[in-house]
Amino acid sequence: MYRITLSAYLALLCLSFPLVSQAQESPIKVKVFIAAMFEIGANAGDKAGEFQFWYERYFSNSQAIAVKGALNPVYCNKNGICGSVLGMGKVGSAASMQAIVLNAQFDMSQSYFIISGVGGTPPAKGTIGDVNWATWVLDYDLGHRWKPEEGLQGKPTFMPRKGYESIRRYQLNPALVKWAMALSQGQSLKDSPAAQTYRQRYPQAAARRLPKVTSGTHMTGDTFFHGPGLSQEAQYIAQSYQADDYMITEMEAAAIAQVLNRTVGVQRMVSLRGAVNFDQGNPNETTLEHLDPAPGQTAGGFAETVENIVIVGGALVDHIVKHWDLWQQNIPALTQR
């Protein structure tokens, strides 16, 4: 009879039944990563936040993948589409994005990134329910500010601070933005009676029209700035940075762009925002009244806007994945549509 030591027996078992560890598994090759900032409750079945319609469209049959350092798990489907809720604000969203990009469970060397969420818009440029593709993302906070009465009357109260030139503005890839705009044409956007009624409080033609897809600069700030004065300041910053007109106020895109720029690059990043409020009140209300509306006086249209975001963004996601042979290495020429 042959004798076998315990160590030899265990070695034979390992040969017969190889141990599977996370480190030995091949990383998921991510074609498109969708980043939302918040969800109101569950990912499905209740009032939708920024992620629910994405989840229902792409991830309802996906397993949650825990990532150390990220606020929420990542979901990936069999087609190489992944997504997660990063958290609100520059610090929270950037921390989650960096944890996910650097995690060994994912190969994001060829990924496209859709930074998706809601925001505000100036009534002279947009309206409730609009969906806007960023041409630039700018940091609203990096600079010097002072109270208007402590400066020159009628002059800007902001000055860029030297030393932040490389992180305060990012121009997103024009070729990718053109693709996004082209694929957005013909998409039917949702609207609501409440939003239609609310728009009529504003005299501007852009504020009163029906929702559509637009493009322009997204202004990233941890502060929810409101009022015509700070809206004008945002436009002044956009002009100072030689960017396109300010169209959307939001809280995360410039910070996420900095993370991607340091890791995989920003050439495959887009920022997509739906307008759920105006950045200022109408002529018959003060800024404080606009910030704290009475019951029943809110803008309306939130549910329709978060759905519009996915209707518009999903067209780009689906096209990239369907034609991955063209998109994997480089952004194809728009004539290859």
TrEMBL record:
Nucleotide-binding recorded as keyword: no
InterPro entries: Nucleoside_phosphorylase_sf, Pur_nuclsid_perm
Keywords assigned: Signal
Pfam family for this entry, one: NUP
BP-aspect Gene Ontology terms: nucleoside metabolic process; transmembrane transport
Keyword Membrane set for record: no
UniProt-recorded Gene Ontology molecular function terms: catalytic activity
Domain of life of the source: Bacteria
Gene3D superfamilies to which the protein is assigned, alphabetical: Nucleoside phosphorylase domain
Signal peptide: 1-23
Name of this protein: Purine nucleoside permease
Record organism: Paraglaciecola hydrolytica
